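Exam prep: given the inputs below (a chain plus iron/sulfur cluster), describe the expected output before reading on.
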Amino acid sequence: MLGAILCCMRPPLRKTPTTLKMARALLTKRQGNRLWNRVFGRYDATSLICRETRAEARARKASGRPPRLHHLDVHLTDHCNLNCRSCEHYSSISKPVFTDLSTFEADLTRLAGLFEGIDQVYLLGGEPLLHPQVEEFVRVARKHLPGTRICLMTNGVLVPKMGDSFWGALHETETILLCDQYPGVADVEAITALGAEHGVVVEFVQATEQFFRAPIDLSGTCDPQESFVRCTGVSNCATIKDGRMYPCAHIAYADILRERFDIEQLHPGPEDSISVHGDATGDDIVDFLMSPVPWCANCDYPALEYFEWGRTSRSIDEWVRVDGSGVGCAARGERGRS
Ligand SMILES: C[S@@+](CC[C@H](N)C(=O)[O-])C[C@H]1O[C@@H](n2cnc3c(N)ncnc32)[C@H](O)[C@@H]1O
Ligand code: SF4
Ligand code: SF4
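Solution:
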């Protein structure tokens, strides 16, 4: 009954602390899990996946149009030339990995057919300027995504060293150079001047003082729904890698962690990502991205913590909970998928 009432409520129904508290108090976990996405899933101003209301989704589906994807991340490299502590993409502990241009093109071609459009794409990594074909990547991206806001996201280290052909490619493809500002890293003045000289829009991300860590709990006992709801709009960020769409970098690049620290459990399963080259429609992919996956049971988002940005010591506890019993999802009585 309560489900019916909540589902009939018209958007905008936002996830506020009050609505979340109300729903938690009134629903069992099982009811809540199913309802959560139906009520909150479609209309969430902070969602990086899809920003259409339930009413808009109904009207669009009735007209047979595919959905829009709000945001897409694509790595050009997995590795990096800067070593941030607890990098969410594990790039500070990755061996050199360069994305293959033809795989990238095949994936973007397919996505362009599955969605009515993609609002914005971040070409990143790792550090994308380390890829020797970075200019070809921005050209291919623009060819397949003519109306998309395309951003090349960098830590800024290499920007002053890039040549005229790099700036020419960004200018020609109207690609935005999106530059992070880590303490003492990017030369903001020089980069601003280079952008102006070459007619390239340069945007700076607000200066980074803090990073965060949502520890990986190897017990796999976290409440996937709880973690997923908390990460929406933060880490829940569509990521395409080798023909499969992942709900976040944590899962897409888990192999980096697994190989570095030799942890066999860190192996995402087939239900943790979805092929974009199979039968899935754009709506199937959006629905997949807006629901928790089994891997979310490893993600202790309720224990999210902030710390001052700094360099990595490459120790496992920057990503994985290793502090034993007494803390974590199991200690809180959560059972996750086990
Ligand atoms: C993985 S980086 C890749 C692009 C480029 N290397 C850079 O740093 O701008 C993409 C974004 O993720 C953010 N990020 C990575 N790990 C993070 C963490 N632990 N906490 C907060 N933000 C993080 C970075 O600050 C950056 O804005
Ligand atoms: S600059 Fe830092 S946040 Fe960006 S990929 Fe490199 S290590 Fe990660
Ligand atoms: S694993 Fe799940 S809960 Fe964790 S960041 Fe990814 S989508 Fe969010």
